[in-house]
Amino acid sequence: MKYLRLFIPVLTLLAAFAATSGLSYATKEFSKKEKKPCTTCHPKGKLKELNEVGKYYKEKKSLEGAPKS
């Protein structure tokens, strides 16, 4: 019983963390908004990673003044 009192809050905390934390994923809405393909911000074949343009867009929320890809 003692372990159960510890296990339930830990499990709840882990579930909440898993549900709210995650990588930020690009969406089709970003692509439509900017009228650019996904590979503008992501290396080809590695859509979970960002290139320099993607890092700039993540920070500034705009491609104005972004480095050339």
Structure description:
This protein has 3 helices and no strands. With 69 residues, the chain is mainly alpha-helical. It has a domain at 22-63. It is rod-shaped and about 60 Å long.
Please work out how many helical segments DSSP would assign. Answer: 3
Distance between the termini: 58 Å
Shape: rod-shaped
Helix content: 40-55%
**Which structural class matches the secondary elements?**
mainly alpha
As a whole number of angstroms, the C-alpha radius of gyration is 19 Å
Mean pLDDT score: 80
Low-confidence stretches: none
The proportion of strand residues reads under 5%
Order of helices and strands: HHH
Counting DSSP E segments of at least 2 residues, the number of strands comes to 0
Major sheet summary line: none
List the helices and strands and how they pair.
Layout: H1 2-20, H2 28-34, H3 52-60
Describe the structure concisely:
The protein has 69 residues and is an all-alpha fold. Helix content is 51%, strand content 0%.
Name the descriptors:
about 70 residues; mainly alpha
